[in-house]
Amino acid sequence: MGLKFRPVDSSFYELFAQSARHIVVGAGLLAEMLADGADREAVASRMRDAEHAADETTHAIIKQVNQTFVTPFDREDIYALASGLDDIMDMMDEAVDLILLYEPSVLPSELSNQVEVIQRCAELTAEAMPRLKSMSDLSEYWIEINRLENQGDKSFRRILASLFSGKYQPMDVLKLKDIVTSLEGAIDCFEKIANTVEQIAVKES
Amino acid sequence: MGLKFRPVDSSFYELFAQSARHIVVGAGLLAEMLADGADREAVASRMRDAEHAADETTHAIIKQVNQTFVTPFDREDIYALASGLDDIMDMMDEAVDLILLYEPSVLPSELSNQVEVIQRCAELTAEAMPRLKSMSDLSEYWIEINRLENQGDKSFRRILASLFSGKYQPMDVLKLKDIVTSLEGAIDCFEKIANTVEQIAVKES
Amino acid sequence: MGLKFRPVDSSFYELFAQSARHIVVGAGLLAEMLADGADREAVASRMRDAEHAADETTHAIIKQVNQTFVTPFDREDIYALASGLDDIMDMMDEAVDLILLYEPSVLPSELSNQVEVIQRCAELTAEAMPRLKSMSDLSEYWIEINRLENQGDKSFRRILASLFSGKYQPMDVLKLKDIVTSLEGAIDCFEKIANTVEQIAVKES
Description:
Chains A, B, C: This is DUF47 domain-containing protein. By secondary structure, chain A is mostly helical.
């Protein structure tokens, strides 16, 4: 048994880190999608590939937890982390998809701020995942993610207010509201994950 | 005790099968609702009845799991299956409701494709539930559901693109977007259930 | 140990009661927000304070459950109650926020009916939480919440029908739909909580 435990443990941390790295890639593609003159078809198809790769990592985690007798921390927390990371990828993929499908006539620059927040959250999460093994220096991570989520939320509300201020056509409002809502959803998921990590740390302490 | 287990077990499988049969009925009513010259008031009220019947089955499952000491598989998986099946019914009911409430001036034919996918998913799920007892021949089921969900997703995105292409009035876009989103939500739930069944199978294997 | 149990137990009930009291406050602020001539900026900022206070109570419950060896009832039920109560606050906060952000040119009177339902549900929930300790007289609570949710649902559907009847501009429909949907979401959460309480009662019985 002793032989079995370590590899299982480390594989969990490695899979979480892998999952977070997929998100860093996805966040980069999201930024590309918003750039002027982007080949949206091409970026969207690379986003789909990144999303499929992320799915495989998620399935590997679920399979791992279901086949492992002793998990490094509570099963429900592992599920929460795995599905939370998966949700972020889905929402970034959705945002990219909506930009491709809706072909909005205008993309307000505020959207780029949201995407910058997403990219920063992705980096912080990718750096934090490997530290789950030692459970060390994680508080800075969840504090900073919560700060970024508050900032993102304020700018999300500013964007909504400007969308509904009357300077946009109803169709553009419809399109842009869906897009910014996907971005906001991704940011919220980063906070959920940070909260789960905080919970795990509390249990371990 | 030996006497107690079997009936309890089989009652779970019977209740899941019952729940899935309610969904087959609901999917049929959804198809009726989209048919030309349908008496929408009448179909919607039959849908409400079907939804109430499904609720009772869900409550029976929850009551069963809460009162049962030994469950055929993990409680969280039983909850996931029960609430997932319930969610499908709610989303089909919502779609029927929205068609009644919004009175869309037009129902694009693509909606029928989505409903056909839902009907096929419902049949496959109803056929699979009784097989939970033996855990046999379930992989074809979840593979086919995943295939159907991908197909449904592609056509959902095509429908959104056409809704936002400019050929519809904003009010019609608002109405139809809600309706197709409920249909898409139902299809996604079928996939969630298939994934839960796959997880259960992995644990049992 | 015996010494440890009681205080822990009662602290859970106290925290749930506290959480529900925050919701009563929030529901009152929601009503103020809809009142003619309300200082929306001021009400919204008081709502944010109430929401932060509620968050702290939620975190206290989560921390408590994570640090407690013997919980008064199943951990997943405690999580469900805590996060459900938190969701209600978030949705009321969202509704207040949207009224502030969207500045709808009109607020149909039907919205006040929804808010009255929310206020009644909040009071009933606040009265019920302390009774979790004795598990007595809870059935009237969940039956009445279910009745109120049905009533709220009917009026929600009437509001949607009127929003889409053509007498509103697309932009107003977009704004009001989001607002009434947040209210409906809050009412649904009250029902979820009532259902969770019913489940707990079944397990205890």
